[in-house]
Design goal:
Distance between the termini: 35 Å
Number of helices: 11
Helix content: 25-40%
Shape: globular
Strand content: 15-25%
Number of strands: 16
Oligomer: single chain
């Protein structure tokens, strides 16, 4: 299987690193990386990937790199890691590629394909050509719901409300950093911001309509998002919430209250300096009632969608040992506590 990562930013560079590290068990023969906007100061970044055996492509072979047209016919699968609706604009191009077995894009490209999150709706994209890995915040909310409400069918959910506290932009950027807290507009008078809307769209692939609301405030930070959750259950859980967090494969727990401390630990101990859990729940600060769970979780945004992205590739291409491979990746990339 020959794969290409289109876009080498925060997500694309991490996807490349994971693919290259685990290429044997992922059944990958060769990895290509497409850099669309080629400027001389990208050379150091691109050299790093070239040294790892990844072939750098540019649209017309600019700066001496491989021309996209020379290799596109050999590509079996594309990881679209572009942003700002570029994935949606690329969809007609991907449709035209006769040898392409599948393609996945990221959260901002809603409408590209079937919305997907690892462990929530795996059957929905098995063998399908186009999938959209949902956003980091959607991952966090859905993982917390599935952990506390009885699994991916949410049998024990009565209603839930979330307040997402967002960082304003990725670390290393300087385009959207705000100087004060900014409240987001509710897109729906009954559901709220796009976070609950997107979670509903994800669970709609399971023919579910969970009762959710969400709000959002952006803060002057470049480190991590956080979410305040308030979940009302249909009946009391038989297990303590901390047991449910520990049992969920994609959740981590922490006793730390400072996101900058966790962020720094991820840079120190995580593969490629990333945190791959869908959420890191502050599990010594929960508010518990008989049928209500409230608390905080931190969201590792540029890392928490990566395993879903790889899982989508395995499902779409019908890898013969998907669950075994995903388990190995989880064992290698995840930590139970931070």
């Amino acid at each position: 299987m020959n794969v290409m990562v289109n876009g080498i930013g925060n997500i694309g560079s991490t996807v490349l690193a994971v693919l290259n590290r685990f290429k044997t068990i992922l059944n990958i023969n060769h990895i290509y990386a497409l850099k669309n906007n080629v400027v001389p100061w990208n050379a150091v970044d691109l050299l790093h990937f070239s040294e790892q055996g990844i072939t750098i492509c540019t649209p017309e072979g600019q700066l001496g790199y491989t021309a996209l047209g020379d290799v596109i016919g050999d590509i079996d699968y594309i990881f679209d890691c572009t942003a700002n609706t570029m994935g949606l604009r690329n969809r007609p191009w991907y449709d035209s590629l006769p040898n392409l077995k599948g393609c996945v894009t990221q959260g901002s490209e809603k409408g590209f394909g079937i919305p997907y999150m690892s462990g929530i709706n795996d059957d929905a994209i098995h063998g399908q050509k186009f999938a959209q890995v949902v956003s980091c915040n959607t991952h966090s909310l859905a993982a917390i719901l599935s952990a506390f409400c009885g699994g991916a069918d949410l049998p024990n959910l009565h209603q839930a409300d979330f307040v997402v506290v967002r960082r304003s932009e990725d670390i290393g950027q300087h385009q959207r950093l705000v100087s004060a807290n900014v409240v987001s507009r509710h897109l729906s008078e009954t559901i709220g911001t796009h976070h609950a809307i997107d979670v509903n769209d994800l669970f709609a692939t399971r023919h579910l309509t969970p009762n959710l609301t969400s709000s959002d405030v952006t803060t002057p930070s470049q480190l991590m998002h956080a979410v305040r959750f308030n979940i009302e259950l249909n009946k009391p859980n038989q297990k303590h919430p901390c047991e449910l967090i520990a049992a969920h494969p994609m959740l981590a727990g922490t006793h730390k209250f400072d996101s900058n401390v966790i962020f720094e630990q991820g840079r120190r101990y995580g593969f490629q300096g990333r945190l791959y859990s869908h959420a890191i729940v502050v599990d010594n600060n929960l508010l518990l009632e008989t049928q209500r769970i409230q608390g905080w979780a931190f969201i590792p945004q540029e890392g928490c969608t990566i395993l879903s992205t790889i899982h989508a590739y395995l499902l779409q291409t019908k890898h013969s040992h998907t669950q075994h491979v995903i388990h190995q990746l989880q064992q290698s990339l995840l930590r139970a506590r931070w």
